[in-house]
Structures are given as structure tokens and as C-alpha cells.
Amino acid sequence: MRSLFEGVPARAAWGLVCVIVLLYLAPLVFGGYVLSVLILCCYLAVLGQAWNVMMGFAGQLSLGHALYIGLGAYASGALFFHFGLGPWIGLIPAFIVAGAMGALIGWLGFRFGIRGVYFALLTIAFAEFVRILFDHWGWIGGSSGMFLLVQNRNIDMDAASIANAFWTLRGPNWVFYYVILTGMVACLVTVRLLMRTRVGYYWLAIREDQEAAQAMGINVLRYKLLAVVISAMMTAFGGVFYAFYNNTLYPESIFSIDRSIELLLGVIIGGIGTLFGPILGAFALTWLGEGLSITQEWFDIAGLKLLTYGVAMLAIILFRPAGLWPWLRRLLGMEERRPDA
Amino acid sequence: MTTDDKTLKPAHGIGRRQFTGAAIAGAATLPVLHPLRLVRAQAPVRVGVLLPRSGFLSAIGAACWRGAELAPNILSDMGLAVEVVGADTESNPDTGRTQAERLIREGVDMLVGCFDSGTTAAVAQVAEQNGMPFVINIAADPAITEQGYQYVFRNFPKAPTLVMRGLGSINNLFEVTGTTPRTTVFMHINDTFGTAMSRGIQALAPRVGVPYEFLDSISYDPQARDLSVEVSRARALDPDFLMVVTRLNDAILLVRECVRQRFDTMGIISPGSPGMYEKQFADTLGPYAEYATTSVPWFNPTSPITTELQSQFVAEFPDQTFELNPGFTFEALMICADAAQRAGSTNADDLVAALRATEIAEHPMYGGPIQFDEEGQNPNIDTVVVQIQDGGPVVTAPVDIATAEAVFPVPSWADRG
Question: Is residue A158 part of a domain?
Fold first, then answer.
């Protein structure tokens, strides 16, 4: 716990605890729509945090992260669909498959010196390759999609069925909310702890100057691979959640590049290479999007949302190029104290 | 009528009590004599209409929305009350899901949508989980209505039905025109819809007994910016005609490339996909859009409701073409309003029971009466052959509703420019 909050001003630590407590209390106040938007926020925050490990901390650009969402979703979804195995068991093969795929892409890229945008292209290529493969794979439904059994959510639940709902992820929205909120907090804690280990510092060194890091004796290939594998596994968790929350999986939709772009936008807006940037970005963008959706329906102007969304992002990139969180952190006096020399 | 001014008694002897009694009796019999007027007095059923009005499907989403905009007035004239609440899915299943949740929170009684199968499947799950009746206007993935859902109904053919009837209609076209091609190359988009159609065609073509041989099947990305390689590949095989499954933008791109490469065939025919009957296709390609042929579920040009709908559509949207997208969206709202009228309430279970008992003989789209089977699927929707002629789509088959004669083989590109 000390390591978790070391260097963090008391005001920031208490602020964080209060926000998390409020988020856990949200289902007592909100239902239906607000809860579904909060679920989307937390889900995007998890994916953003995962992508941030690879790009923000280890400096490896991926534009095909939808691949790991899809692999996680299909691994757990197919086990549930064909064998009735629940999501928590499905999480294990999801981690293995996504981690292995991440390792393969990473090894191919890093071993043969593919860097920057070329590495990003490799990640897109793999996502597309797997999409086409899954489109033609009948066992998982192919292009016709895979549908998981749906349960009516407007039913009364006793203690046993609540426990069962958490175990099987078949239940009302608040069950999904608590799962993804806990996942978001777990990802935050994991990344925070990782960044305070030797691995985290190695990643930062590689991000800043790979040659210098190598000259200092860091095994660049190993630590870059580790970043990709951890990022892929965290993303796969998001995929497993997506499968059981959405219940419908189409290769075209889940492996699409739009999904890869969607998950990194929040990080760019929130602040790449920061711990809270992905969370802030996901919440800000999602609520902005929803607000604009409602406004667009009021004024009956289709496309107003996407247009305003684009302008807002342009403004943030122009005026806050480091993202919202570094600016907000300064504004609130929550900057982390540097360790004493 | 004259009255005595002092007593306000009518001159022919009907007193206040008699009048009041008669009025009460009249009011009591009114529901029996004028059921439609009573419905008008009821609060309209609130229907949330989810469509891709922005994003890459925005053109088609906007076309569907026009049907939704016309529905309240036309249905009101038919004695059916409906209030439309719109939501934009942004061509994204996740947004569709959130918007469906929002509409349910805002108190809509039913949902209609969503054009693309991915978003429709996501919204179907939300509808099922929340016990909200959902009528699908357009979406062909068969799996959506094969999940045992209780609240989901579809007034559009499943992909295999679409393919089966599409291939059958194309056979009829060849018989009617007396020209039977021997070979074809099949070009199709590689998204969910295109791949499902491709598999359906491969599986069902032998069963339908098509008289032509498939030389090759070429797939491409629906958002492709260049189809020169794909068209060259097809051209090298020298097929008698091109069979295509497209969306709008790639259909335009494909024809442009055929013109550029002077790739002449007997015709370009779709067994049931969007793109080639749409206004933007004809407007963009001008003479090169002519004679593009699609076998597709379409409106019935001989139905009185279609005539009314079409005339209001032209008055309201003079620059647009009335086609299947506004037609099926209107019809979905008509189904909702009809169910609400028969249910006499907006309770979800009453509405679902009424939807199950739907039997609408007179409706705008071509086919038998609107009914739903145990899956919630309307099995009676038929397809027609539509061909672009003089800048717009016309029905060329079946002959009982055809408004023009089919042209096949079509003139070469050089003879059109």
C-alpha cells in the first residue's frame, strides 16, 4: 500500500479514494442508461490503460489492439457457447491466446527491427488477418456472428442469484458495472505497481531512447515483449467483459480498426504515459459523446455529435497536447513528488 | 335546428333530460361504431427509431429516417397514432446499444431499427433484456431471430431467403428477356453481410438451378478506395455477366472501374444488396448507372398505401427517391402502431401479444400479409427485380406489378456516354 501511494500528495490520494467510493455507490443512485454509460467509461478506461502500457510507457505504437479484444471475447465466448464454461474460467484461455498473439507480433516486429509506424502497420495487419480468419471460421459462427444466451434483466434477485450473476456474468447492468469498475481499479493498481518496479523503469528508458537503454545493458527485446504481452492480456480482459456484456460477437465489428482507434483516443485526450490519463480521457470522451448525442436529437441534426467531437479533440490536441490530466494535475496541485536524490 | 329561447328546449319537443340521456347513450355506443376515432383520442404509442444517421452508413440511415418522418401523419390518417423518437447509432453497434438504453429510459413503448445486422443484434439483446418490443425494419442476419427471443420481430427477409428469392428472380429475368448467360464472376464486399450473402449464394445456387457457371468469386473491402485490381481480375475471366453484392460507395466505384477498363458484359446484377437502386448511385454515375439490376424486397407500386406514401414522400422530399429503406422503416412503424391499437395499451407484454397476432393485408412493401411466425420473423416478404431506367429504379418483374420492361443484355459503356 505504501508503494502504491508513495510520492502521491495526500490531497490526490484522498481525492482518488473519494472518486472510487463515489463510483462504487453510483448504482444506488443511477440506473439504466447512466449506468450503461458508466460501464462504457470504465470499459474504455481498461482498454486505454492496457494500450497505455505499450505505447505510453514502453513507447511501442499499436493500432491493432482490437485484435486482443476480439481474441479475449471469442476465447471466452466460444467456451461459454459450446461448453457452458463461465467467463472467469474463459479468462484463462483468453489471457493465454491474447498473450501468445501479442508475443508473436512483438517477436516478429522487434526481432526484425520493425519500429514506429511500420510496427503499427504490422499490428493492423494481424488484426485484419484474424478478422478475415474468424469471418470464415464456422465453429465460432463466422461472419454470421456468435450469440450468447441472453437473460431478462428485470427480474428480482436473491443473494444466491446475485452471487451466481457475478460468477456467470448473466444478470442486471449493475453486476457488469461492478465487474468492470473493479477491473478498472485493478488495472490502475497493477500498472502503478509495475511502474514502480525495475520493469517500469526499463520501459521508460526504452521509450526515451532505445539505443541508450540497450547500451546500459537492458534486454530491450525481452522488456518490449513483456510490455506487449501484459498489454494484450489486459486488453483481453476487456474483451471477455465485452463478450458477456454485449452477448453478440461479429468479427467485422470486434476486430475493426475503428475499435482500435476508439480505445486510444481516450488515452491521447487524457494524457499518454500517465496513469490517470486513460481514465480521465475515457470518462471525458464518453460523457461528451453522450451529451452531444442528446443535443443532436434535440436539434435533429444528424452528425452534429461526430463533428463537435472532432472539433473538441482538435482543440484539446492544439491547446493541451500533453493531454488533459497533466494540465488538470497541475491545476489541482496534485503533482507527484519526485523521490529525494 | 330551432329552439325555444326562454327554456332552451328544442322546438320539436326534446328536453334537456332526453338530450343528456341520448348523449350518454351515444357516447356509450361510440367505441362500437367508431373504433378508429377512439384510438385517435388515445395517447400515441411512442416508438424509438434507431438508425445509422451518421458514420459510414449515414446515407442509408438518412433514407430510412425519411420513412420514419412521414409515418406519424400518414398513419394518423389511417387511424393509427404513433410518436417517433429518433436516435443515431452512428453506424456503431456499441453506440446503438447505449442509445437503445437511453430511449428505454426516456420511456418509449417500442423500438424500431437498425438497418445493419451488427447494431440490430446488439439492440435486440438490449430489447430482450429489458422486455421491450423491438421491430426490425431492415437487417438480414438469420441468427438474430433464431435466438428464441420473445420481444424481437423482423419485417425483412433473412439472408438465405433473400438469396434464394434473388437467384430465382434473376432466373425469371433471363426467361422473360429470352437471353440466358452461361458464365458469371461474383464480386462481393467482405463484411458480415457480404460474406453471409456469398456463402448463401454458394450453398443455394445449385438448389435454385442457376443456368450459369461461377468462374470466380472476388471479395473486397466495402470501404475500398480502388477496385482496379479486382475488376481487372474479373475482366480477365471474360464472364457473360457480373453478379455483385455491394453497398453504395463500392457499387459506384465498381461501375466506374468497369467503365474505365471498358469491361462490357451482358449486365451487372445483384441478387439482393443495397447500392445500385439508390439515388446517389444513379445521380453520380448518370448514363453508366442505367440498367444496373437488383433483385430486392421492394415496395408494391400497385398498393394504395404505397401510392399515398409515395406522393407524400415526393412532396416532402422532392430531391430524393422513394425506395425500400424509407418503405420498410415506414412499414415497421405501421406494424407498431397497428399492434398498439389492437393491444389497447402500451404494456410491453400486451404489445408483444398483439405483434404475434399481426395480420396486415394492405401494406406498402411487396409480399403477402404481414404476419410473424414463432421466431418473430415475417415469412411473407417477396422480392422484385428493379432496374435503373431513365435515372431512377423501376420494377421490371414480376409482371403483375412491373412498371417497365427489363433490358437485358444491356448496351455497352461506349454506347451510353
Answer: no
Decide: residue B391, CB within 10 A, 0-12 exposed, 13-18 middle, 19+ buried.
middle
Any domain includes B405:
yes
Percent of chain A with pLDDT strictly greater than 70: 95
Distance separating alpha carbons of residues A100 and A102, to the nearest angstrom? 5
Kindly tell me the burial class for residue A10, based on how many C-beta atoms sit within 10 Å of its own C-beta (0-12, 13-18, 19 or more).
Answer: exposed
Q: What ipTM is given for this predicted complex? A: 0.80
Give me the domain span that covers residue A233: 2-146+166-331
Q: How do beta strands A146-147 and A248-249 pair?
A: antiparallel
Q: How far apart are CA A203 and CA A113, in angstroms?
A: 17
What's the total number of domains in chain B? 2
Task: Residue B287: count other Cβ atoms within 10 Å of its Cβ.
Answer: 15
Residue B231: domain span: 160-296+384-415
Does residue B162 contact residue B198 with C-beta atoms inside 8 Å?
Answer: no
Amino acid at B328: F
Q: Are residues B398 and B278 in the same domain?
A: yes
Q: What is the pLDDT of residues A175-232, one digit of tens each?
A: 999 999 999 999 999 999 999 999 999 999 999 999 999 999 999 999 999 999 999 9
Sign of the CA dihedral A279, A284, A285, A289?
positive
Task: List Cβ neighbours of B119 (8 Å cut-off, separation of 6 or more).
Answer: B50, B52, B89, B91, B92, B93, B96, B113
| Angular region, B79: left φ>0, alpha ψ -120 to 50, beta rest | left
Q: Specify if B107 maps to a domain.
A: yes
With respect to residue B343, please indicate whether it lies within any of the assigned structural domains: yes
What CATH number has the domain bearing residue B389? Answer: 3.40.50.2300
Q: Which of B54, B122, B192 sits opposite A305 (nearest CB)?
A: B54
Q: Which of A69, A173, A253, A301 is most worth mutating to test chain B (most B CB atoms within 10 A of its CB)? A: A253
Q: What is the 3-state secondary structure (H, E, C) of B197-226?
A: HHHHHHHHHHHHCCCCEEEEEEEECCCCCC
Strand partners, B394: B387
Copy the grid coordinates of residue B130: 429489458
Partner-chain residue, chosen from A152, A252, A294, that has the shortest CB–CB distance to B192 = A252
The reply to whether A174 falls in a domain is yes
Residues of B with Cβ-Cβ distance to A238 under 8 angstroms: none
Give pLDDT tens digits for A81-111: 999 999 999 999 999 999 999 999 999 999 8
How near does any CA of chain B get to the CA of A221, in Å? 35
The listed range with the strongest mean pLDDT (B140-144, B176-180, B247-251, B355-359) is B355-359
Based on the structure, what is the number of domains in chain A? 1
